[in-house]
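INFO  loader      accepted 1 record
INFO  loader      residues=487
INFO  predictor   begin
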Amino acid sequence: MPASPTDARLADAASVNLNTTLCNLPLAPPVVLEPALSVREALRAIDLRGAEVAVIVDGASSVPLGIVTLRDALRGIVEGECDLAGPVAAIMTGGLASLAADATVHQATVLMFRRGMRHLILTGADGQLFNVVSQGDLYGMQAADSASLANAILATRNIAELAAQTTAVRRFAARRLAEGSGAEALCEWISALNDLIALQAIELVEGEFDLPYVPWCWIVFGSEGRLEQTLFTDQDNGIIFAAASSEEGEALRRQFLPFARAVNQALDACGFPLCGGQVMAGNPAWCLSLDEWKRQFGNWISVPEPEALLNASIFFDFRPLYGREELVADLQHWLLRKVKGNAAFFRAMTANALGQEPPLSWWRDFRLGGGKEFPHTLDLKGQGIRVFVDAVRILALAHGVAHTNTIERLRGVRQALGMPLEEAAAMVAAFYQIQRLRLQNQVSGEFPAAANRLNPDRLHQLDRQILKEAFRQARTLQQRLRLDYLG
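INFO  predictor   done
INFO  writer      dumping tokens
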């Protein structure tokens, strides 16, 4: 469903958000042509609309057949290969990848980068043409260095070359931060470029294995699943596959595990450390069939013990990265149905989330810690970002919001909560203020062993006050959670 005009104001109206749904982009209506139309008439129609591309559509079914661009037509005319009187279908580019209109800008961006596409056809649920989107529509605001970096990632042919691109991504992020890029856009681009690195690693490794011929998908969890990665992040991933029985599931797992472990090692070589908690596809516990994932999630929901709640806080922020996305969509829909109305589960999740509080003392100054190793510091991730993430996850699950990104979840539940626009906007600003300080802190390298710890005395007085207000917004969110689920 398109976002309301009110909720749209929560987003930065001057830029494209990578979590924006494609159907909500301000796109001009497409130029639609039938395949029998002459090339001359087709070019005239494109020119009259001031467009650069037209979609060729089957007149009977409205299903897109291909596209024709002014650039391609001009090349054909110059090379003498284009008959202006002939049908436009003769010069169209067919067999193009398409994407559902309810997909996100992030999904379209990654697909277009990987396929080297300048235009992407969008379709409705019925398979009919919805619109066509160009690179400029998606990321015309980006600097050229991010596009060249993406191309460099996709040009790598081995893991050693790919590892060098991770360093380049971090240099890119540090440079953009110094130039004043906002935390929202920067975290999204870090996640998008990291996705490309992971996708390239999976493809490079996949060619070395004879994988079973069944539907499967590589899933990512945690900050990667939320598209909220910063400069330092380890791996949180798994595999989901289709299996008709427990016996088949066990056999398929044995076949997938060597491949999964090889990918985990490749990602580690690329600068994404192995997960200390073993939340990785190479762990048999997280290489599961669709039914096994449902059973595992169901156990955590039915018996919300401390370990189950910890797992839920990681695994319930999931999205597909590579493979058959419909398996992950099935799991997502099942999860939302399973938790609906489960008061005991949400009560336990809330009690767990409230165990970590913003670092504010009763006299409205910072409450600092860090011990001897990191004295006089606060934890921007654990005491800040995590507070928002944990609270909004509960609200999203309770209200059936399928998004995994924290801010998109907040936007999705705002109206159901009766939350004033100004309150939600303040929380969004607070979240990204803490993210910005995390990124600045990581670039500075004051505490390399604890990149999320910050000594607030190093901040300008104004930044100190803004950070305090950001933590107060986190506290307000926790108070709402306490009232709603603990009474």
